Amino acid sequence: MIKTTTRPPTSGLSSTSILEVDALTKEFGGLTAVNSVTMHVPERAIVSVIGPNGAGKTTFFNMITGIYAPTRGSIKLAGRELVGMRPDQVTEAGIARTFQNIRLFSSMTSEENIMVGRTCRLKSTFVDAVLRTRRFHETEAEAREAARVMLDFVGLSKWRNEIATNLPYGDQRKLEIARALASTPKLILLDEPAAGMNPRETEDLKALIRRIRDELGVTICLIEHDMRLVMTLSEYITVLDYGTKISEGLPHQVRNDPAVMEAYLGRGAAAGEYGKEEAST
Amino acid sequence: MTVANANPPKPAVRRPLVKPDRTALLVAFFVVTSVLLLISHAPDVMRNLGPFGDVLRNKVVEALIVSLFLANVLFAYLWKAANWAKLLVGAGSLLVVLPWAGRTDTSLLDLSIQIMIFAALALGLNIVVGLAGLLDLGYVAFFAVGAYTWSIFASPRFGEVLKYYGSNPGTTGSGTLAIGLVLTAVTAGSMIFIRSLHGRIAPTRASNLSFLIAGFGLLSGIILVGRSILVLFAGSAEAVANGINPGFFWLFLALSIMTAALVGVLIGLPVLKLKGDYLAIITLGLGEVIRVLANNLSLYTAGSQGITPIGSASVPWFNGLAGALGFRPDQFYLLFLYVLVLAVIALILLVNVRLDKSRIGRAWVAIRDDEIAAQAMGVPLMQTKLIAFATGASFAGVMGMIFAAKQTFISPESFNLLQSITVLSMVVLGGMGSFSGVILGAAVVTLLNLRILPGLGEASANVSWIPQEVNPANFNRFIFGSILVAMMLLRPEGLLPNKRVARELHHEDDQEDESGDGNASGLEAGGDVYSAGFATTKEDDKTGGDR
Amino acid sequence: MELSVLLPFIVNVIIGGLVLGFVYAIIALGYTMVYGVLQLINFAHSEVFITGAVVGFEVFRVLQDSAMNGYLKLLIALLAAMVISGLLNVLIERLAYRPLRGSPRLVPLITAIGVSLILQDVLRFLEGLQGRFDLTYILPAGFGNKFCAAESTCAPVGNALRAIGVDVQLKDVILVVVSLVSLTVLNYVVNKTRMGKAIRAVSQDRVTAGLMGVDSNLMISATFLIGGALGGVSGVLFGLKFGTVNAYSGFDPGIIAFTAAVLGGIGSIPGAVLGGLLLGVIQNLIGVTNIFGNLLGLANLGTIDASYSKIGPFIVLVLILIFKPTGLLGKSNVEKV
User: Fold this and answer.
1) 3-class DSSP state for residue C61?
2) CA distance B13 to A163
3) Which residues of A touch B202 (CB under 8 A)?
4) Which of residues 13-32 of B touch A (CB under 8 A)?
5) pTM check: above 0.80
6) Ribosomal protein: present as a keyword of the record (chain B) (predicted)?
7) What whole-number distance in Å separates Cα of residue B349 and Cα of residue B123?
8) List of residues 6+ apart from B489 with CB closer than 8 A
9) How far apart are CA B127 and CA B434, in angstroms?
10) ipTM tops 0.85
């Protein structure tokens, strides 16, 4: 642990935190994958978690979304403790996510994928479905409407009835985001959304992420390796290395932090990428 | 009935082929097969036909005629034809011609009931395996639960049980009943309380443990209540010496559904967290456990001897109707069960279709496709899987009860592992996830099992060079095994595929060839045929991909 | 029961359980090795192993009148069973499992169940052609005698054992010795040879192993060969122990052995052995213990007999999978997200 002091969020950021992660730790056997990480995400912000490969970023996300149970620590969404909840309960509480390796439902259409994302907001029950009650028809219409709105929002309307895994790669990423948004989350976690995208697709994605925040009012937290995207998009950045938070702050603060440079350049893991970013900005 | 078309026709990648109208063909086929069926099941007529009658009497030939006849229903469903013709053929076959032929040959009614019972089982297992992707190899256990629920009460067994408790009351009395009731109420109350707590705060170790202890308390409370009720009512043993009043049939129809669903939940709770192959072997084990219990709890189940005779419902107005239609009194109960089973299966099919096109159906398929993603999207895994398990179990439960009423005899051997495998092979043959497919699978496998194999066995019994040990009648394992292997290797999506499953299994093949010839099925009539997509194999799935 | 009677009784139950446990252990190895490389429960393994038992029966039957030494007959039976079961297992993989790699997980699993059923009837058919169903082993003279009986040369050893209450047959000792030899050879092959290293590499990460120049298909075949050969050995031992087998009798020991593999930690070879031995003992103990009878109000659950000992392994399996799904010696396997 080099620096764990929390700097107050600066500039135009909201002062109320929507997500408060405190001293979060995950140990796998003897290995500490995430070591006492504290992170506060301001409401309606776009924040990033970066770090070299194996820094514990995805483990961190998995704890927030309830897939892994933390060894210690607390996670609060708008003041409500999430530790101990199942992933579906976390989603219902208001955190949606996408996956590093795209995990769409491969036998469903785009529309059906998004309708599944809406599941936790639908109130119809087993009995409603069997008896085809009015509530059932209403929720089905609601789910279909949510799918339509979300497909429009991410610009995939033309793929509505196409099998999700038949979509072009970049569109599959967008569909995953749309599916996550269908649960009307307060916070969305994007795990390497730009991975494998070409520069043009990345630009589209950047615009989309801004629109999610501006138009839908959803707070965004992303893990990303594309430094150009991170530096231009994020309002606040947390840097992990070997499971420990080594730096955080505004993009320019993080960029000039020697600890961050050492983490990337010292081991050379992402040296090229980061160096290039340095040179161009 | 367009079962698998969840969505209206849509701008497709490729337009489906326009199918020719086959109304005339359908009606002609219906007439011809109906005549064949009626002739081949009328002994009087066949006697006058000489050698041709002998051919018709052969079991294998009979099976062929029955399958041709049942193909009517399939074609009415699949072919493009006028609605009146579809209705005529569907309803005419099942409601008029079949019962009519059964009037002169009750074995046909028996066979049809069997086919529909298995079709219901296949539909139930299809929810678990085909939609939710959970391989349950102990499915027949639920069938057994339904069967025993009715059999114990509707046979002399119940009297025996009461007699036993009457002569061995132990310390049980009305006091025990009171204690049992209090215990049940208190533990059930605390379980509900803990659950509601869990809704607000995260469960802790202590709260989970207390929930478990309360569960055990509830179980013992229920046992105490049950025991004291049995003891207190032991005096009426004579009154129920031949089983309870058949009027309770309808109540038990509901009870058997609930009991089977409850057992489904109880079995599901500990095991549904497990991944695919573990789940398969553990359900196989629990299925065997239920069979062993049935074998050993001889007071209630009469052990390996089996329970007999088992009563059925008595419905006077129905008997009157059947009598007016020319059925003999000894045929009434079979005809009644035939109509009942037809109604139940229609209901089951309706429930299936409706669930499939609801958020629950989507959640099942999502879990089958990717469990982790499904949960991250807010699908409660355990609850959704339990619903699948309980729904599948309840279908088996109600059919188990009807099965017991039809057979009037059940023993633990009716519910062995091979039965579970038989139902699985129906699902696999017809197509996992496809409702019409599994019904077709059930018909084919049941005909194989009850007519074709025994028919071949009879035919070869008189051939001197075939030893009895290799009589084809005993080759059902081989046949089911071959169905499973051949389908998995050659056509994993089944004979009448569900389009979703076909998509998942053939994502790397060229689907155009597949859909062109094989699926002359209406399942795709309103839908689309999709082009090949990306591999869906997950990176973390080590079995996946020959990479 | 008095302690002086009870203690030797319990000792013998445990020793009987251990002997049984060795059979389970060797069967379990077949499951665990295949699971290690393919993550597939090879349902057909119970038939592969019963094939070994049938081959063993045939060898002893054909040689019943020969004056050959009994141990030599056993050796021939073991070798024949190993070769046939091993090749059968390779053939199954080649024809039924390999074409399905990359399919959803249910597909190969259902295929394995199908193969198992097919083999059951094929075996029954082959023996049925000669008018047989239940196959009773014709063991060489002396195999059924007490170990180191009073009149034999090693009588002092036998007497010493009997003095502390241990009473075993010669065939039990043979069974344990054969099992130990098999385990030693397997340990050598897996841990000391190039092939063993390659198999372990494939089981850890097929893709990377392939990139490193390991022919993963060949190694999977080799695994099926070894697993099948062990199945052959265990089949003969099973026949030796129980005397009678038929084409359908693979199911129960198959399930128990699979449970043993899971108990020990699936994919772990020492785990399979440990699990097998534990389950053998557990099964024997359940067989003699009245587990329900003394509980309040449950006396009418029926007689506690061998059929309850059949469900013992399932209960164990449920308990392990709920409380320690990685087994006793298995490594934890966290699914990557």
Assistant:
1) helix
2) 11
3) 81, 83-85
4) 13
5) yes
6) no
7) 8
8) C96, C99, C100, C111
9) 10
10) yes
